[in-house]
Each structure stands twice: as C-alpha cells, then as structure tokens.
Write a structure and sequence with these properties.
- The structure holds two protein chains of two kinds.
- By secondary structure, chain A is an alpha+beta fold.
- Helix content of chain A is 32%, strand content 34%.
- Chain A has four domains: 64 residues, no CATH class; 34 residues, no CATH class; 126 residues, Sandwich (Jelly Rolls); 72 residues, Phage tail protein beta-alpha-beta fold.
- In chain A, strands 1, 2, 3, 4, 5, 6, 7, 8, 9, 10, 11 and 12 form a twelve-stranded mixed β-sheet that branches.
- In chain A, a hairpin with a 5-residue loop joins β2 and β3.
- The longest helix of chain A is centred in the first third of the chain and has 25 residues.
- The relative contact order of chain A is 0.06.
- Helix content of chain B is 79%, strand content 0%.
- The model of chain B has no long low-confidence stretch (mean pLDDT 84).
- Chain B folds into two domains: 95 residues, Rna Polymerase Sigma Factor, Chain: A, CATH 1.10.1740; 70 residues, Arc Repressor Mutant, subunit A (Orthogonal Bundle).
- The chains are: A alpha+beta, B mainly alpha.
C-alpha cells in the first residue's frame, strides 16, 4: 500500500466516525421516525468499517449510561466560566490553569482547599498569629489570614474557630472574622465563630463582638455569655451560650439532645458519613463524649439506647432501632 | 515523549533539587497526608516537564505553587465525585449493586464526563445533560432553553464529539 492510499483510508475512517456520531445524535433526539431508523440501519449494514465506527460510539454511550443520574448535580453545578475566571484571577491561579479548572461552588470548597490554615476531619489545631492573637481551629476548618495596615481580617471558609485577641500594639487595627454571611468584629475579646450551611453562629466568651450582615444593613453587638447568628441579609435573636464551646476541651456535651442532631454533630468529627433511621432521630441523648474518638462514642450510644449500628465500611455507618 | 535537550534537562534537575522539598512540605501542610503530598509534588513536576513553558528562575516557586494548586483542586473535585458515587451506590438495593469492575468504570466515566462538560460552553453542557440525564426530547430542550431544535442538534454533536475524545 503506498502512502497516498493510507491517507485515504485514514480520512475515510474518520469520516465514518463523524457519520456515526451524527447518527448517534439523531437517535438520541427522542423523536426518531421510522424512516430515519431505517436509514440508520442501511448505513450500518454498508460495511465492516461502518460497524466498527458505530461500535466505538456505542462504547462511549455505554460508559455514559453507567454515570448515575444522582451524581450529575455535582457535575452541573459550576460557576459560569467568566465568574470563575475572575475568582481564579483573584487567587492568582488563572495564569497557569486558564478557564479549565473545575471549581466547586458549595461551602467555598476550593477556597477552603487553598486556604492559609486548614484542619481535616477530626483534627484540631492552635495557631498563633503575627500580632500574638490566638486561633484554635476545630475539625474541617479553613481560614485565610488577611492582615493589612488597616485591619486584621480572618476569612473563615469552612468550619469553626475560637479566637483570643490581643491588643494590637501601636496601630490599633480592628480584628474581624468574615464569612459568606457577614462579619464579626472583636471588641477586645474571646469568641467562637462557627460557619454552618445557613448561618454563621458567633458566641462570645469575654468582651463583646459586633456583627454585621453581608449586605451591610444589619448591625448588632453581642455581650459576653451570649450568642447570635448571622444569616444572609439578616441577624438572628440573641440567646445565652450553652455548651457549644466544649469542643475546645475535646468534648461534645449533650443535654437532652435529639439523637439525630447529636449524630449530625458527631459526624463533623468523623471521616465519611453517619446515617440514621428517622425512627431513632427523636430519641434523646445526654452525656459528655470524647470528640476525638468517635468510634468510642458510637459504642457508648449502644449501651445507653436501644440501637443497632451497621458498619458498611469504616466510613459508612448506619444507626437503626434495635 | 522525547528527551529534553541537555540545557533543559539541567534546568529541570536544578528545579527539582531546589524545589521538590519545600513543595512537598507545602502540600503536606495543605493536605495533611504525607503520601498524597508526595504524589502531588511528583505530579507537579511531571506537569511542568510535559508543558512547554519553563519558568524563569525567580518565578519558579510561584509557578510550581500554581500548578500544585490546580492539581489540589482537581483532587478535591475528584474526591467529591467519588463520594457522591459511593453515596449513590449505598442507596441501591443489594441485588442491583454493580460489580466492582463496573463500579470502577462508572466512576472513571463520571470523572471524565465532569472534565468533558467543564470544557464545554454552558448552553452545550446544559443541553447535553437535559438530553442524556433528564431524558428530554430535542423539542422539549429547545422549548426549555429557548433555542431552535437545530441548535440543540448542533450542541449535542459538539458535546458528543467531546465525549468521544475523552470518555
């Protein structure tokens, strides 16, 4: 075979592949007429090469069918590319990665990954900042530190932090924590900030903290021993502190807590997922539990309540009524 | 891959010996897993070697960090897809659970599809998902997106071509 005819064969084959693709697109329309179906079958029966080209399209089609519908939400939910590029530019990522970097929208996921300080599931860590202020990070937390000449800003992307501020010698810059719901500005103080899905909960141990919602319309100052939530464009009522900050001592304190809420809280500290039947969700739990040994906590629940726990794998735990 | 010329080889050697250590330490801080950090640091250099661009010495650090960040984001996205897939598996009645081999292929397909769709314009992506995963007909998609049926066909062809190349 001379070179010329090889090129012809290659061209013919890629033309067949293109035709096969076009047939596939037609067959997927959901509105195929009998004539079209017949025309396709005629095309397919024309040669082995036609069938070969079609079988390659079928391999692709079968792989697609294996992708569960339930996972498509994740694939679909992306930032529009222009917005994504802008965000990436802010991060200084655009130069290398262009527009092709996938970005996860939920819970500031990708910022969390590239953040200055980060803890993983079940990990807690203490950080002393440049001005001497102290930051204690709870499980699955990520924080960016953005100190400037005007202010000491911490950006909480995910998780929970406890802050003990010190006076800023010389410059007197305010210290504030920013989340997607708003900001909490310290007025010489110790306080806890937890970013949840719908709100950012701020509870004050010492001193006071000023909250401001992200749209800038709502302000509120909380005194020590009190807490409140920043919501998108609003603030919640102020209530007294409970035992929310027991995590600082590695403890989870439950006082007549719904088991469902208890397990949700526990799962923050555990890799994988804890599921439970609705029949057990309303049982009540009381006690002091060690956060960093979640296996032990699950075992101790078995002794206190009529439960059965199935371990599908180490990372998939299901709690049923026994 | 052809061997780089001696000058480039020397440059790479220099980059590797000066930067591998801190890059691994930096990744370890971010990922707090030694093995993943070592793998990603390695991948970062592989990415650098296969790309044509080589940073100027004073930009090496920033350049490597940027590649590494991109790889971390890929890894993170991949993990989320894996988790979503496993979650889906768990909802299935035991008799319908695919074989481990099928699971591996399916997960791979999901990750590849994610990459494919990411490269496509939003309208094309949307069209493809509505057709293949929401089972809408082309006329229904045309109505829903306010475009012509011909445009739906054109978008589908584009998305299907991309799937053929990558899936």
């Amino acid at each position: 075979m001379n070179q010329h005819s090889t090129i012809n064969v290659v061209t013919d084959y890629s033309r067949l592949q293109q035709e096969a693709l076009e047939w596939q697109v037609m067959l997927w329309s959901g509105e195929v007429t009998a004539d079209q179906q017949h025309a396709f079958e005629v095309w397919l029966s024309r040669s082995d090469a036609h069938q070969q080209a079609w079988s390659e399209v079928e391999v692709m089609q079968q792989k697609l069918q294996l992708v569960p519908h339930a996972t498509i939400g994740l694939v679909k939910n992306r930032l529009p590319s222009a917005k994504r590029r802008r965000v990436l530019q802010m991060l200084g990522l655009a130069a290398v990665t262009g527009g092709a970097v996938p970005v996860v929208r939920q819970s500031d996921g990708w910022q969390a990954l590239a953040a200055d300080y980060r803890t993983h599931t079940g990990q807690q860590e203490k950080v002393v900042l440049a001005d001497g202020s102290e930051l204690i990070m709870n499980t699955s937390t990520s924080v960016d530190i953005a100190y400037s000449a005007r202010e000491r800003r911490l950006v909480l992307h995910e998780g929970e932090i406890y802050i003990s501020t010190v006076a800023d010698h010389g410059s007197n810059r305010p210290l504030l924590v920013q989340t997607r719901h708003g900001t909490a500005t310290a007025l010489g103080t110790k306080f806890n900030v937890r970013l949840k899905h719908h709100e950012t909960r701020v509870s004050v141990d010492e001193g006071a903290v000023k909250l401001r919602s992200s749209n800038g319309l709502h302000d509120l100052t909380i005194a020590s021993g009190m807490q409140a939530g920043l919501l998108t464009g609003a603030l919640s009522k102020v209530t007294a502190n409970g035992s929310e900050n027991a995590w600082l001592d590695g403890k989870l304190v439950a006082e007549q807590l719904r088991l469902g809420d208890f397990l949700d809280e526990l799962s923050r500290y555990r890799m994988g997922v804890i599921r439970y039947d609705q029949t057990v969700a309303n049982m009540l739990v009381s006690g002091v539990f060690p956060l960093l040994d979640t296996d032990r906590v699950l075992q101790s629940l078995l002794q206190a309540l009529p439960l059965r726990i199935d371990y599908f794998s180490k990372y998939w735990v299901t709690v049923h009524a026994s | 891959m052809s061997m780089p010329d001696p000058g480039v080889q020397q440059q790479l050697h220099h980059l590797y010996s000066h930067h591998y250590g801190w890059l691994k330490a930096w990744l370890r801080k971010k990922l707090s897993c030694q093995h993943t950090a070592a793998d990603l640091a390695q991948d970062t250099f592989v990415r650098l070697i296969v790309s044509d661009k080589k940073p100027l010495p004073e930009q090496s650090r920033a350049y490597l960090t940027q590649i590494a960040k991109g790889l971390m984001i890929d890894l993170y996205r991949r993990q989320r897809l894996e988790l979503a897939y496993q979650e889906w598996l768990l909802q299935l009645p035991p008799v319908e659970t695919p074989s481990p081999e099928q699971q591996a292929i399916a997960l791979q397909s999901l990750i590849q599809l994610d990459k494919v769709l990411d490269q496509l314009p939003a309208k094309v992506r949307e069209t493809f998902i509505l057709s293949r995963f929401e089972q809408l007909t082309y006329s229904q998609i045309a109505d829903q997106l306010g475009i012509s049926v011909a445009a739906v066909r054109k978008y589908m062809l584009k998305a299907t071509q991309a799937c053929m190349e990558l899936l």
